[in-house]
């Protein structure tokens, strides 16, 4: 056992050492289960074997996709949907909130460019678009009542896929450049437009290993300008509670497996749930970029946990069994 100043943590070469301690696992997606293209080494087999031992799994993901779409993608990634109780996604929760709180309002919509799968219009439908009292997409800041940070490729106007006007957000997703976004956010802040962030992640790791900057950074930037932003997904406690509800297990017998100290570990800590930190995900560079599947040094772990102010219950390199 190792420990930081405030909290001890245990280090393990795989999940095998921890299986007997928990009856259910809340799984993050990217960096834990898969890389967006295929399952990570050992992860599909781990879920399959533990499900056969009557362990329960549920996905908790900061994705703008619906719960249904998230489960539907699993076979392509190497996982059997039958092994999961379901999925709780930030997009599902954000859409539900918007449909109730912003009826008949117009939205300035930060999203992904035409051609994204699933279509951004699927998310808008969950927000009530198309209903008699549903939201409409604004074509200008002056015409908007609120903002949705759903993606970070374009500001999209009204209209069907391929017809709607799209204004590029430049290279923000690739390198975090706010040069196009800042003037827009400043104008929105002057109008006191509230923002809804449907994906609070700051960073994602792409299949090729490169990083992409995400809507959570836009929300954070907007707040720094005096704007108000509501976030949905991790690390917010209600989403962890929703997972516990769907698992039907005591929280003391459930662990959350994730690769982000900011969202996964922080959320689990705030929810009173054990956390299993996967070192091979978004913090890999912070930990000295050990070879995939290898554990970083104890010193590197303690330094990172102290820096970020979050300490997990357990540490593993990957979601795998011995």
What are the SSEs and their pairings?
Elements lengths: L1 E2 L4 E4 L12 E4 L15 H10 L3 E6 L5 H6 L14 E3 H12 L4 E6 L8 H7 L9 E2 L8 E4 L4 E3 L9 E3 L3 H4 L5 H10 L4 E3 L5 E3 L5 E3 L1 H10 L4 E3 L5 H11 L6 E5 L2 H11 L2 E5 L19 H11 L5 E3 L6
Helix pairs in contact: 3-4, 8-9
Looking at this protein, list some descriptive labels.
322 residues, alpha/beta, eight-stranded mixed sheet, disordered N terminus
Alpha-carbon distance between the termini? 19 Å
**Sequence of strands across the biggest β-sheet:** 1-2-17-16-15-3-4-5
**Proportion of residues in β-strands:** 15-25%
Morphology: globular
Computed Rg: 20 Å
Note poorly predicted spans.
1-5
Number of helical segments with 4 or more residues: 10
Structural commentary:
With 322 residues, this protein is α/β, with parallel strands linked by helices. It has helices at 43-52, 67-72, 90-101, 120-126, 172-175, 181-190, 215-224, 237-247, 261-271, 298-308, and strands at 2-3, 8-11, 24-27, 56-61, 87-89, 106-111, 136-137, 146-149, 154-156, 166-168, 195-197, 203-205, 211-213, 229-231, 254-258, 274-278, 314-316. Helix content is 29%, strand content 19%. The protein has an eight-stranded mixed beta sheet with strand order 1-2-17-16-15-3-4-5, with helices on both faces. The chain starts with a strand and ends in a 6-residue tail after the last strand. Residues 1-5 have low confidence and may be disordered.
């Amino acid at each position: 056992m190792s420990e930081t100043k405030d909290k001890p943590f245990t280090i393990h070469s795989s999940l095998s050492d921890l299986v007997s301690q928990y009856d259910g696992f809340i799984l993050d997606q990217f960096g834990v289960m898969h890389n967006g293209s295929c399952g990570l080494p050992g992860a599909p087999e781990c879920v399959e074997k533990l499900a056969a031992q009557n362990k329960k799994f549920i996905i908790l993901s900061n994705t703008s996709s619906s719960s249904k779409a998230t489960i539907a993608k699993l076979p392509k990634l190497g996982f059997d949907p039958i092994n999961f109780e379901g999925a709780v996604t930030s997009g599902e929760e954000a859409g539900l909130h918007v449909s109730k709180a912003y009826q008949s309002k117009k939205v300035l919509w930060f999203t992904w460019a035409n051609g994204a799968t699933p279509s951004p219009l699927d998310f808008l439908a969950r927000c009530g678009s198309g209903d008699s009292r549903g939201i409409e997409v604004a074509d200008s800041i002056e015409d908007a009542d609120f903002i949705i940070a759903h993606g970070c490729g374009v500001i999209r106007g009204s209209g069907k896929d391929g017809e709607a006007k799209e204004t590029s957000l430049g290279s923000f997703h690739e390198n975090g450049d706010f040069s196009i976004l800042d003037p827009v956010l400043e104008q929105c802040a002057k109008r006191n437009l509230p923002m809804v962030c449907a994906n609070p992640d700051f960073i994602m790791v792409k299949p090729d290993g490169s990083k992409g900057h995400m809507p959570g950074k836009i929300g954070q930037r907007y707040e720094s300008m005096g704007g108000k932003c509501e976030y949905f997904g991790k690390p917010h406690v209600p989403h962890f509670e929703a997972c516990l509800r769907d698992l039907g297990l005591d929280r003391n017998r459930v662990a959350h497996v994730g690769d982000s100290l900011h969202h996964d570990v922080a959320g689990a800590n705030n929810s009173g749930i054990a956390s299993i930190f996967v070192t091979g995900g978004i913090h890999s560079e912070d930990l000295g970029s050990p070879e995939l599947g290898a554990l970083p040094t104890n010193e590197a772990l303690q330094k990172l946990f102290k820096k970020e102010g979050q300490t997990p219950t357990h540490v593993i390199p990957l979601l795998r069994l011995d």
